Amino acid sequence: MTDLPESAPDASIETLFVTRVYRAAVGDEALVAELADCCRLAASDDGAGRAWSRKHGYPGYTSYASLDDLPWRFPAVKALVRHLDRHAKAFARDLAWDLAGRKLELDSIWINVLEPGGFHSGHIHPHSVISGTYYVAVPDGAGAIRFEDPRLPLMMAAPARKAKADRPLLPHVSVAPEPGTLLLWESWLRHEVPLNRAETERVSISFNYAWR
Fold it and tell me: Topology of 24-137+174-211 in CATH?
């Protein structure tokens, strides 16, 4: 509960319906370097993925629609998945989820190589419960991932927030990652990747967990 000024002595404010974003540092420099090699090798060899990226206007390369066996292809990705499984379980505990005897399972995992000048507009991840990204290369100027308040479409005629509003009250919140950063969020949380203003590619590995 939050106490209000003396002008409202009998009032208080309670925070409800919290949206959580989980952050952890995962692996070491060797794992990050090996994953960077894997991502760039896939971008070079995966002709189907490059074709899909061109067709759908993805500014760079993604294996989203072409490779569904990254942990089998690359031992470093398999090692990363072991970390992801552990952190997804920890996040589920923090969310106080009752899994009712079912499990969280990695449903999909894909590579993103975002070219300078590229961006990814706002979206959610349907048909999953936890989504996330592991950051492999984040050059200066690559930009932070930006999350949107899920209530925003319902606010209608509400006034804008003050520029110095507390972070939990902002309609959009940016989280700046670095190589080795893991971020997890509930899959309904809308997010976007702003313009890559760096001179080199921004490389990441994204994934979804389903409840089965």
Answer: Jelly Rolls (2.60.120)
